């Protein structure tokens, strides 16, 4: 039996990233948040299009150095940076360090002075802006991320030697549609210019992805137009965004095979090889992962097209990948292609739970892989 396989469609990723880039004004920089999916093939594919990569840990810095050795890392972010993390950022000569607190700024400044360097930083600020419709909210309320606005104003007015404060970083919410994301960008930029005379503003990622309606995609052209207006209002400011999920999610699939089909108290259960220890996204976010069925003509048990719960091989009722109220009949041996598994999927999964084998990874077209399954 073929192992469950992540299939990354790098051609689709290249096309999508190019469309995102083309939708943005030239003067707006596009970074990719590596934590969404650090797959080397994806990073190499994106390298042709994005202006840079945002690393959120020392591990991601190391990984970027290995995968893209000639590329300077654009941003180093994340709460709880240790001295070792900051030294690694200095050693890697990252373009901007995103500083999360006053204490972190002072530690970074001291390390920079000791190395005879001046580090260029953005202050991550937790601004009280409205984030309507957001799925995850990182700011605008008590938060471990970033610093209060008045703290940023104080630090910008009197920065320690060893750092140069270039501006502001804000990543306040995820799940924002184009209009809301642009409104947040507007508020952040207005504030940053007025309060800390920012030369650069990174307004973060968090562009909406709708797992229940995969065809509803973030409106990049609309967002690009609105960001253009923000940029026009602040022509001296370098604007930057750093999406992850909305760039990578559509270009990955998790392809696996049906092991068993059974009826339990009036409901069909479809049990596939693998499960949420490979693809934790639906369990983590509480959605049903969209999937397509590729029939393989087996003569084993099959559903009758009625409501199904698709589960994996873990001994926990939380190992649910998808629900469907109706759909095609599913038989033992059929292949399911779970879509939207290109971001926060394998890399957020509790891979050692039950010590099942890991999935395989391939580049290509997921439907072609499904059709060739087992051959
Ligand atoms: C995770 C993260 C991103 C990317 O968020 P997406 O929702 O994947 O677009 C960008 N910036 C920061 C600071 C993050 O923590």
TrEMBL record:
Keywords linked to the UniProt accession: Pyridoxal phosphate
Pfam family, one: Orn_DAP_Arg_deC
SUPFAM superfamilies (alphabetical): Alanine racemase C-terminal domain-like, PLP-binding barrel
Superkingdom: Bacteria
Keyword Lipid metabolism listed: no
InterPro entries: Ala_racemase/Decarboxylase_C (IPR009006), De-COase2_C (IPR022643), De-COase2_N (IPR022644), Orn/DAP/Arg_de-COase (IPR000183), Orn_de-COase (IPR002433), PLP-binding_barrel (IPR029066)
Domain (Orn/DAP/Arg decarboxylase 2 N-terminal): residue spans on this chain: 12-248
Cofactor: pyridoxal 5'-phosphate
UniProt keyword RNA-binding, yes or no: no
Domain called Orn/DAP/Arg decarboxylase 2 C-terminal: residue spans: 6-342
Family indicated by similarity: Belongs to the Orn/Lys/Arg decarboxylase class-II family.
Protein name: Diaminopimelate decarboxylase
């Amino acid at each position: 039996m073929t192992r469950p396989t992540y299939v990354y469609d790098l051609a689709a990723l290249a096309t999508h990233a190019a469309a995102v880039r083309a939708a943005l004004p030239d003067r707006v920089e596009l970074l990719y948040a590596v934590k969404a999916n650090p797959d080397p093939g994806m990073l190499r594919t994106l390298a042709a299009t994005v202006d840079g990569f945002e690393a959120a840990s020392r591990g991601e810095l190391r990984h970027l150095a290995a995968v893209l050795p000639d590329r300077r890392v654009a941003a180093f972010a994340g709460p709880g940076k240790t001295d070792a993390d900051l030294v690694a950022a200095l050693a890697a000569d990252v373009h901007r360090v995103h500083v999360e607190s006053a204490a972190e700024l002072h530690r970074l400044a001291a390390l920079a002075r000791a190395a005879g360097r001046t580090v260029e930083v953005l202050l991550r600020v937790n601004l009280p802006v409205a984030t309507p419709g957001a799925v995850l909210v990182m700011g605008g309320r008590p938060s471990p991320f970033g610093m209060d606005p008045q703290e940023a104003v104080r630090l910008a007015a009197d920065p320690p030697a060893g750092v140069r404060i270039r501006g502001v970083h804000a990543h306040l919410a995820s799940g924002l549609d184009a209009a809301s994301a642009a409104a947040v960008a507007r508020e952040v930029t207005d504030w940053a210019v007025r309060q800390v005379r920012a030369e650069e503003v990174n307004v973060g990622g968090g562009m909406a992805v709708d797992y229940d309606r995969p065809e509803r995609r973030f409106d990049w052209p609309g967002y690009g137009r609105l960001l253009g207006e923000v940029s026009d209002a602040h022509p001296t400011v370098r604007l930057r965004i750093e999406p992850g999920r909305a760039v990578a999610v559509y270009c990955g699939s998790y392809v696996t095979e049906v092991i068993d089909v059974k009826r339990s108290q009036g409901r069909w259960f479809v049990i596939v090889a693998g499960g949420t220890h490979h693809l934790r996204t639906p369990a983590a976010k509480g959605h049903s992962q969209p999937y397509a069925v590729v029939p393989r003509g087996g003569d084993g048990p099959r559903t009758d097209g009625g409501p199904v719960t698709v589960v994996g091989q873990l001994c926990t009722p939380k190992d649910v990948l998808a629900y469907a109220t109706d759909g095609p009949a599913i038989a033992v041996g059929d292949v399911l292609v779970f879509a939207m598994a290109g971001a926060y999927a394998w890399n957020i999964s509790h891979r050692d739970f039950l010590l099942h084998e890991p999935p395989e990874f391939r580049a290509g077209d997921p439907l072609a892989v499904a059709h060739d399954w087992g051959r």
